[in-house]
Amino acid sequence: MSITIRSFGHTREGRPVTLLRMENAAGACAEVLDYGARLRSMVVPDRDGKPRDVCLGFDSVAEYEANGDYLGALVGRCANRIRGGRFRLGGREYALTVNQGANHLHGGARGFDRYVWEHRLEGESVVFSRTSPAGEEGYPGLLRVEAAYTLTEDNALCLRLTAEADEDTVVNLTGHAYWNLNGQGAGEVGEHTLSIDAIAFTELAEDGCPNGTIASVVGTPFDLREPRALREGWDTTHPQIRLGGGYDHNWILRGDGLREAAVLRAPESGISLHLSTTQPGLQVYTANGLSARQGKSGASYVPRGAVALEGQGFPNAVNEPTFPTVVLAAGGIYQQEIVFAFRHD
């Protein structure tokens, strides 16, 4: 396992950005940036041993700054949506930045994805850290966050997330990588198959937040207990699919602790992605709103040209008392893990 470091340019504010490249003996490599503690590239072998970069990204800081799709980013303080940008905690109402319609999304107008994080090497891991001051985007309490990336010798990328706060606050962190297992820029991912170990999902209301209903997947396009091509689901006229413009929903994962939650496979390349997580939910987003644009090395990105698999707490959980809590108590420790393990059939 080796880690190399190089400059990746500067932000518009003049802050230097660093790229850190992890490579294992099998030839797999992952590139991460301290801008947004994000994953820029993930190269793994296909069934014929040919290396393919399966993660969408850009070639410059300016492109990341100009685009709002969170490509590869670590999003927070609170991933996903908070209805109306408001919640009550400790008898007080907090008003957050509203940045998607009437809702707060992925930490607000300047979430964690828009900052240069500190970085350090710790053994074979790259560890990013930052301190989010009290009041940032409207959140209570000072929050210290770390995101550690580790590439294993058997082609798994592990993301470990920790945080602690000096006041009760809301925390829900996740990685927002976009995957195309045929290679970034290889067109729509409709033929990719996806299976999820879940028997229920959180229904959406018109505003994109959950409506509070825990719905069974049985008899719906959300039944992915057996592998199903993504196109089979996003081409249906199911009301929930129409609301999301495709898949943009949270599945309620079975079990506790670190367990395998989902498997994404690409028949063409033979690459499979096995996702394990400690989180209670998995948001699946089939890049329905991704605009046509140029990505790394001139690759063409298109709507539905990737899928994001975001292990996280439920959307709007802070306002839904029946959902698992996303409140971090003062002095408590937030710890979550997401593992992306790559294999080939």
What are the salient characteristics of this protein?
30 strands, 345 residues, mainly beta, six-stranded antiparallel sheet, single chain
Quick description:
The chain has 345 residues and is mainly β. The protein has three helices and 30 strands.
Description:
There is one protein chain. With 345 residues, the chain is mostly beta strands. It has one domain: Beta-galactosidase, Chain A, domain 5 (Distorted Sandwich). It is 5% helix and 45% strand. The chain is built from 3 helices and 30 strands. Strands 11-12-13-14-30-24-23-18-21 form a 9-stranded antiparallel β-sheet. The longest helix is centred in the first third of the chain and has 6 residues, at 61-66. The protein is globular and about 60 Å long. The two termini are 24 Å apart. The model has no long low-confidence stretch (mean pLDDT 97).
Assign an overall shape: globular
Topology-level CATH name? Beta-galactosidase, Chain A, domain 5
Q: How many beta-strand elements? A: 30
**Mean pLDDT, rounded to whole units?**
97
**Rg, alpha carbons:** 19 Å
Catalytic activity: alpha-D-glucose = beta-D-glucose
Organism: Intestinimonas butyriciproducens
Pathway: Carbohydrate metabolism; hexose metabolism
EC number: 5.1.3.3
